[in-house]
């Protein structure tokens, strides 16, 4: 509605104010939408497991994503969901912030641990305390897992999640 009002007004100052307000409201709406999407359980996990869910992450990415999903057994649903969210956020961050041209996602189960590694060839400098990565660390910690972020300036960035499956 604000955009419509901005288009209809003849006053350039009022139009600029309305555009600024519309921009801020759309930014807030995107934050809220991400929060909602973050909590939604991906249907692909139920339909095809972690490998299928990771394929959807790769298909939606704006840069190539190479997948290597070497799961000999099916991890628990909670571990699969957290692994999916780690991969989705890491790929999104690589696309938005790193300047990467390729992301590699590797998932394997070692003994009773689901290990997920997401590496991009971008410029590095990812901050583990940033809101997205901090949220991932909390999700992983909720399962008594560990999340490590290795992202030196100049790159690459490697995010590793180890999730107990016992």
What topology does this entry show?
Elements: H1 2-8, H2 12-39, H3 43-60, E1 65-70, H4 77-98, E2 103-110, E3 113-120, H5 131-142, E4 146-150, E5 157-164
Parallel strand pairs: 1-2
Antiparallel strand pairs: 2-3, 3-5, 4-5
Helix pairs in contact: 1-2, 3-4, 4-5
Question: Would you kindly provide a written description of the structure presented here, covering whatever features stand out?
Answer:
The protein has 166 residues and is α+β, with helices and mostly antiparallel strands. It has 5 helices and 5 strands; from the N terminus they run H-H-H-E-H-E-E-H-E-E. The protein has helices at 2-8, 12-39, 43-60, 77-98, 131-142; strands at residues 65-70, 103-110, 113-120, 146-150, 157-164. The chain has a 5-stranded mixed sheet with strand order 1-2-3-5-4. A hairpin with a 2-residue loop joins strand 2 and strand 3. Helix 1 runs antiparallel to helix 2 and helix 3 (43-60) packs parallel to helix 4. The longest helix is centred in the first third of the chain and has 28 residues, at 12-39. It is elongated. The chain starts with a helix and ends with a strand. The model has no long low-confidence stretch (mean pLDDT 90).
